[in-house]
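Record now logged for everyone:
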Amino acid sequence: MKTINVGLIGHKFMGRAHTHAYTDVSVFFDPEIHVSKRVICADEESVHDIAKRWGWERSTLDWREVVNDVEIDLVDISAPSTIHAQVAIAAARAGKHILCEKPLSLNIEDAEEMVRTAKEAGVINMIGFNYRRVPALALARQLIQEGRIGVVHHFRGIYQQSWLINPQFPLVWRLQKKDAGYGSHGDLGAHVIDLARYLVGDIDRVFCEQQTFTTKRPKPASVDGLVAVAGDEIGSVDVDDASAILLRFAGIKAMGYIEVTRYGTGHRNQNRIEVNGSKGAILFDMEKMNELHYYSTADESHVQGFRRIQVGEGSHPYMANWWPAGHIIGYGDTFVNQAFDLISAIRDDKPVKPDFLDGLICQKVLDAAARSVSSGSWESVS
């Protein structure tokens, strides 16, 4: 059996999620190929102990060792956004297939170079929009494409987290533009923008408002993913805490609205999606990720209403490979579904979605929205 050797850059939140995916993809799917966790990389000494715990064959502190290793087939970039472009471009030039977490890069120029280099190298490339691999959202797309809800009129996406409500939470890298590129706008908004495109279609123009509620925070003494301990020094937040975007889609009359915030009191990780059409509607809430609510105007009026579909049948997307009917899966398992699609694409030498181009298009929407904040007017997505 052929082997795909993986090199993982990053050992925190996303590194853990992606390790889970490579570890379990052959347990629940048959990719017809062996996935080997060859090397994990980070710029902290703790990566060596992590490698042993997570089952990686070896570890390194230099991502260049991963990219230049002739045995590595797939480079997985799960590190902060600040190094996405340089690692991805070097990996593509070295002939490696690439999975890169979102957002694609810190600026449009680097994102365009990533797309161009991957295309010229002919390598399989994928951006980590794992919500496309939530079975309920994949089913929603299926229902929309089948015409079950008719002509789409509205898309609404609300992504709420609440981990920044405490003003003493430290100034982690996600709150620094030089490291993250964006605030909640890019961290959470990128996911919702991609789902808008996935479910409805391309976005033509946007209008955006943003707010930073806490502008000063203590610098961290230590950080582990989304967990941090405050130090004594104070620093400035230079990204948004919340962002609201009005959307217009290309070629259709549908209206869109996206709201994202890290101040969503009462919500740890709510990604709520609603699409209304002429014949029905779908409603999804990540806090109940194994459910999809579907409304149909074809039902008799006295029984019309949203019906709850428990997405656990073998006929639902991805679910035939998991547990018996009705047994739910979790957030981390979306990365297993993602890994299977990526590994299968590499095996068959076929493109996979979403790719770097999807990441670039999403980033162009993000940038158009950022321009709108400054101009106070609608901005076109180039």
